[in-house]
Design a protein that fits this description.
This protein has 15 helices and 13 strands. The chain is α+β, with helices and mostly antiparallel strands and about 450 residues long. The strands form four sheets. Strands 4-3-5-6-9 form a five-stranded mixed beta sheet, with no helix packed on it. The longest helix is centred in the last third of the chain and has 32 residues. It is globular and about 75 Å long.
């Protein structure tokens, strides 16, 4: 038998993609480490895996993530994917079509598959978007000015949706209506995705009316989606930190853990991992000596914790350094000033890198296969939320508002799903004015 045993069909964002699926393991999620990259907001970086073997494709979701669903019902543990049966992962759908004579045994389906060694091969190439007869974009050079970083381009208009694909409101709205009766969480996620698009006044009214219907059940769904999106942060910044670093032995790391954990339990009061985090805090608290003054090593670890990994938070890092310098003297002051200099340099480098990344995903002429306005928006929001330098933040805000796809719905989604980010965006006067103009305050 050949290596190709089945086809994996992915339906997401109004697009359908097909991949060859062979014997072995395939991971799926929204992160770079996933073999199959999903774009849905409600999918974790490593959401789960599909094991292709003699009994067909078996899907398993990772611990702590939103469960997969079949016919609207959640499935746990190992789920054997039947031929043609759709499995919903967040707002994406995965379906396996087996080659003739392969796949799990079923009443009117193919026979049991035979195993072959190897790893599934998934093509990452996306279908080419249809070309419009009229150019859908204008290249606008933006000069970095005082930052001194050279030219950077943003497209001003596009007929594409935020995923880079054609956005068809009627199709997405029909899908939302269908999902309402089968999968409330999936439907709510689709509604959020629709709200981020550049809608007409009539379409916006329909979407707003759905959100305005709000009752206790819908509020719980919104909170569940928000909690799910926090799972990646929880895993990296708390769970892995607690398990892999000396947070129960070294004061500096214990203090950083307590800082992160305190923010988490306050920001996500209904998160399913909240009690677990509080138990960790009880173990770490005596080591952290939270009430005692910060020492240089405490400061160094605190700053490292803010800027070493995404989402980088230079605001918090510089605030910590400034607070330390307010009372530091002698060698402590010299060390803190050195940390400040290094951190400001890293902030500039980070700013430059993000602009470069945004330029690639928002330059359709040069990088058509990478065109994705939503990524450019995320890059600018990341800069505004994380930078301490007010001039750099203002420049990122100007670029964000120049992205045509940054709609009131997109800003409204931040307000609803990430209020912490929304408040940081509002610090910029131009974004606050944009929010006021669109009745978001």
């Amino acid at each position: 038998m050949g290596a190709d045993m089945a086809k994996l069909i992915l339906e997401e964002g109004g697009q359908t993609r097909r991949f060859k699926l062979a014997s072995g393991k395939l991971t799926f999620g929204s992160g770079e480490k996933a073999t199959l990259r999903l774009e849905s907001d409600d999918v974790a970086e490593l959401h789960g895996q599909i094991d292709m073997g003699p009994d067909g494709a078996v899907l398993r979701t990772a611990k702590g993530v939103m469960p997969a669903k079949v016919s609207g019902r959640p499935v746990s543990g190992a789920h054997t994917m039947r031929d043609g049966q759709a499995v919903q992962v967040g707002s994406a759908k995965l379906t396996v079509e087996y080659d003739e004579g392969e796949g799990p045994a079923q009443a009117a389906g193919p026979a049991t598959a035979r195993a072959s060694a190897g790893t599934p091969r998934v093509s990452r190439r996306r279908p080419k978007a249809k070309k419009s007869a009229v150019p859908s974009f204008v290249l606008v050079p933006l000069i970095l000015g005082a930052a001194g970083f050279g030219a950077y381009a943003l497209l001003t208009k596009t007929s594409k949706g935020l995923s880079g694909a054609e956005f068809d409101f009627d199709t997405r709205w029909a899908r939302y209506q269908r999902e309402k009766g089968e999968d409330a969480i999936g439907a709510r996620t689709i509604l959020g995705e629709i709200s981020r698009e550049a809608l007409t006044a009539q379409q916006r009214a329909l979407v707003d009316a759905e959100f305005a219907e709000g009752n206790e059940e819908l509020e719980v769904l919104d909170e569940d989606i928000r909690n799910q999106k926090a799972m990646d942060w929880f895993s990296k910044r708390l769970e892995n930190y607690f398990e892999d670093w000396p947070v129960t032995k070294e004061r500096a790391h214990a203090r950083l853990f307590m800082k992160r954990a305190t923010w988490f339990v306050e920001e996500y009061p209904t998160h399913p991992e909240r009690e677990r985090v509080q138990r960790w805090m009880d173990r770490v608290r005596p080591v952290a000596e939270v009430g005692s003054p910060m020492e240089v090593e405490d400061l160094r670890v605190d700053v490292w914790g803010s800027v070493s990994a995404a989402p980088k938070d230079f605001r918090s890092a510089i605030d910590s350094i400034s607070a330390f310098l307010a009372t530091a003297e002698g060698s402590d002051r010299t060390a803190a000033e050195q940390i400040r200099t290094e951190t400001l340099g890293e902030e500039r480098t980070f700013y430059d890198e993000k602009l470069g990344e945004a330029a690639v995903v928002y330059d359709k002429a040069k990088y058509p296969d990478k065109f994705d306005p939503s990524l450019a928006i995320n890059d600018m929001v990341t800069l505004i939320a994380g930078l301490q330098d007010t001039e750099l933040r203002a420049d990122a805000a100007r670029r964000l508002l120049a992205i045509t796809e940054f709609s009131p719905g997109k800003l409204s989604a931040y307000k609803r799903e990430r209020p912490d980010i929304f408040e940081k965006l509002l610090v910029d006067p131009s974004i606050r004015a944009f929010a006021e103009e669109n009745d978001l305050l």
